[in-house]
Amino acid sequence: MRLNVNNEERNVAVAPDTPLLWVLRDHLDLTGTKFGCGAALCGACTVHLDGEAVRSCSVPVSAAVGRRITTIEGLSATGEHPLQLAWLQEDVPQCGYCQSGQLMSAAALLRQNPAPGDDDITNAMSGNICRCGTYGRIRRAIHVAAAKMAGAKIADQGEAS
Ligand code: FES
Ligand code: FES
Q1: Domain residues for 94?
Q2: pTM of the model
Q3: Which atom of ligand 1 is nearest to the CA of 36?
Q4: Of 49, 74, 99, at which residue does a domain stop?
Q5: Which CATH number do you get for residue 142?
């Protein structure tokens, strides 16, 4: 089976109903995506399919063929996505286990809604459980990243004009 993962073409020999999570972790060694509940309830396994957040524990790998799969390893080539920088600035993670899933959900949110309000953030992030309770810092970091991305866009437009 041929997959596009983080902009690379990868071949895997697996049964079509294998959950995407296990293909990523066990066959492609992309262990940044975590296993939590295995039942689409916790969000630890969140990755993007064509830019949309999905729960990779509950997506058969066959459904990802022909689509762009992005994992936390591919969120930014330099590891400096505005959300990653904001996560550092706000010191978001505690144990860290849920955080790659949180970042992937947050990135999908900002792609769809570059200026989310508190309610938008609550709705978009409600499927990502954090046993350490970092929700307040996650919300702050998303606001920080959104403001930085909006500022960068205004600066770009200024340069272009
Ligand atoms: S491991 Fe996929 S949602 Fe929990
Ligand atoms: S930081 Fe520990 S589960 Fe979220």
Answers
A1: 82-159
A2: 0.94
A3: 1
A4: 74
A5: 1.10.150.120
130 in contact with ligand 2, CB cutoff 6 A:
yes
pLDDT at 157: 75
- Report which ligand 1 atom has the smallest distance to the Cα of 127: 3
How far is CA 26 from each of CA 13, 14, 18, 74, 106, rounded to the nearest angstrom? 12, 11, 11, 17, 25
Name all residues whose Cβ lies below 6 A of ligand 1.
35-38, 40-45, 55, 57
Residues 32 and 56 occupy one common structural domain: yes
Quote the pLDDT of residue 159: 63
Ligand 1 atom with least separation from CA of 40: 3
* Nearest Cα residue to atom 4 of ligand 2: 130
Same structural domain, 67 and 89: no
- Same structural domain for residues 125 and 56? no
- Contact 129/43 with Cβ under 8 angstroms? yes
Per-residue pLDDT of 83-104, as tens digits, reads 999 999 999 999 999 999 999 9
Listed as ranges, residues in the chain with pLDDT below 50 are: none
Quick check: 97 and 131 in contact, CB under 8 A? Answer: yes
